[in-house]
Design brief:
The chain is an alpha/beta fold. The chain is 43% helix and 14% strand. It has a 7-stranded parallel beta sheet with strand order 3-2-1-4-5-6-7, sandwiched between helices. Helix 2 links the parallel strand 2 and strand 3. Helix 1 packs across helix 8, helix 3 runs parallel beside helix 4 and helix 4 runs parallel beside helix 5. The longest helix has 29 residues.
Length: 256
């Protein structure tokens, strides 16, 4: 990561929030933001003792992002301990492989609660505080190519990510005059997390999947992290309401 004109890291002095910070993408993003100079607070559902193993450099809190009170408490605690957050990465998510006809109400509601409602609650709470303090900032939603290409076996997840995209655009319009830029990064198939575990379990699946991607490469968690950090750069003054699609051309072909 290049230093700024002052010689300091580009995000020096800024405070970043990363939800879902113990997952592969969340962890990579937190590390990338830290390397760029930000003070980073992460949340997840794991016990605090587990979160502390990530790194002593990170402020960890156990948070269910679908609980508005828990989100408010987390952001307030980070503001008290590290300073007012100006970078927000709404990354917490879950996916339950299940077709539309098999999807239970419980799976539907929990998937939307975490992937959509939880992301909105975090963005909303952080933005409210930025506006009150008249601070500019960056909010990045971690979406998915599944938000615009139908996926038969992850119906609830696809619907949640499609809703996330519209939430991002609505917030972008409202917050632009305050200098708060809101964007989405939409990864394709990442060789990490649930998809990475699935490919590791099924012999030959990783190579079969790779061949179906036009660029012939699977994403790594670090690729997504670099994309997130690029959207947080101070030099980004005009991109808002945008989707950075990192799917290697998958969406040009449709579901695999």
């Amino acid at each position: 990561m290049e230093a700024s004109e002052t010689g300091n890291p580009p995000l020096d002095g800024q405070v970043a929030l990363v939800s879902g910070g113990l997952g592969d993408i969340g962890r990579a993003t937190a590390l990338a933001l830290h390397r760029a100079g930000a003070r980073v607070a992460v949340s997840d559902l794991a016990p605090v003792r587990t979160g502390r193993r990530m790194s002593p450099e990170f402020h960890y809190t156990r948070v269910d992002v679908s609980d508005p009170e828990a989100v408010r408490d987390w952001v307030a605690r980070v503001e008290r301990d590290l300073g007012p957050p100006s970078l927000v990465v709404c990354n917490a998510g879950l996916v339950v492989p299940m077709g539309a006809l098999e999807t239970t109400q419980a799976v539907w509601e929990r998937t939307l609660a975490v992937n959509l409602t939880g992301a909105f609650l975090l963005a909303q709470e952080a933005a409210r505080r930025m506006v009150r303090r008249r601070r500019t900032g960056r909010i990045v939603f971690v979406g998915s190519w599944a938000g615009h290409v139908p996926h038969a076996q992850i119906t609830a997840y696809s619907v949640a990510k499609a809703g996330l995209r519209m939430a991002m655009k609505c917030l972008a319009v409202e917050l632009a005059p305050a200098g708060i830029l809101v964007n989405e990064i939409a990864p394709g198939i990442v060789d990490a997390g649930l998809s990475g575990k699935l490919m590791a379990r099924r012999r030959g699946l990783r190579e079969k999947t790779r061949r179906k991607i036009p660029v012939q490469r699977l994403l790594e968690a670090e690729d997504v992290a670099r994309g997130v950090v690029s959207l947080c750069q101070p030099e980004n003054r005009h991109m808002t309401g945008s989707v950075v699609l990192m799917d290697g051309g998958l969406s040009l072909k449709g579901p695999i």
